Amino acid sequence: MEERNWAERLALYRVDLSKRELEVIDFVSNHPLEASFLKQNELCLRAGVSKPIVISCFRRLGYEDYQDFLEGIRGFYAGQIDSAQASLVALHDVADVPELISLALDVEAATIETLRRQLQPAQVEALARLLLDSREIYLYAEGSGFEPAHYLYQRLRRCGLRASLVGLDRPHLLDDLAPLGAGGLFVTFFYTQDARIVAELLDYVRAHGAVSALITGAPDPELYRRTDHHVFVPRGQWNFKNSMAAPMAFAQILLLAVELLGGTELQEGLKQLESERKNFDSGYREEAS
């Protein structure tokens, strides 16, 4: 079952909340970054309510406990929590490198598990078929989204698909997209705080008759309505913001889906390429020695 984010829970259950419970919601909505790091008694004090009210509030929203409630707030507002703040909180109780490794791997595992619960097979298949059927594929990313975008760019070209990595030279971004039109596919991994650029690009793509796909960890309805396909892929837990484990895993899953649905011809082409690569590398090593 797809896990609901903070905004979706509010939309569904707000009508069931009491006046005092709504005061908790109002405080969180007005002070999301502060609220996401408060202890339960501190939240009670800041919101001006009792502990039973806070407990009743998060239970009506479908959260198991207070920590789950905080994670829901952090997950939704993660784009507003800067990396420095997140790192300080994450490292607060870490005494040494072994503890750091354990914490980091636990966070990565939790993120991948979130991806497992939320990723819909139909979404992956639809996007893979779009990649296979598109005349031209334009991959765009800002910031940390570059890694999965670049990975797909390299691997899709190996599959014989016409893929371009655009936006590396921002002033000439529209030059990169100049051939964009019907039969084209624009794919973006969005993991930055400022949605204006990607929103304008999605509008530009639609105006030129191409199809767009948005892969993001930001539950942004405004971006969703601008794109033809959107897939929610978390970047990482709030306290390990720079993690790209889940987006990279999604890129790998998508690539494998392309290879699977591409059938024998595509798979034979990859085998031929690998054979030629080995011969090429072998000749290069002999010359170097």
In short:
The protein has 289 residues and is of the alpha/beta class.
Summarize the structure in words.
With 289 residues, the chain is an alpha/beta fold. It folds into 2 domains: 1-76, Arc Repressor Mutant, subunit A (Orthogonal Bundle), CATH 1.10.10.10; 117-262, Glucose-6-phosphate isomerase like protein, domain 1 (Rossmann fold). Helices cover 60% and strands 9% of the residues. It has helices at residues 6-13, 19-30, 32-35, 40-47, 51-60, 66-76, 83-91, 97-118, 121-133, 146-158, 173-176, 196-207, 221-224, 245-288, and strands at residues 136-141, 163-166, 184-190, 211-216, 229-232. The chain has a 5-stranded parallel β-sheet, sandwiched between helices. Helix 2 crosses helix 4, helix 8 (97-118) packs across helix 14 and helix 10 (146-158) packs across helix 14. The protein is elongated and about 70 Å long. The mean pLDDT is 85.
What's the helix and strand layout?
Layout: H1 6-13, H2 19-30, H3 32-35, H4 40-47, H5 51-60, H6 66-76, H7 83-91, H8 97-118, H9 121-133, E1 136-141, H10 146-158, E2 163-166, H11 173-176, E3 184-190, H12 196-207, E4 211-216, H13 221-224, E5 229-232, H14 245-288
Parallel strand pairs: 1-2, 1-3, 3-4, 4-5
Helix pairs in contact: 2-4, 2-5, 8-14, 9-14, 10-14
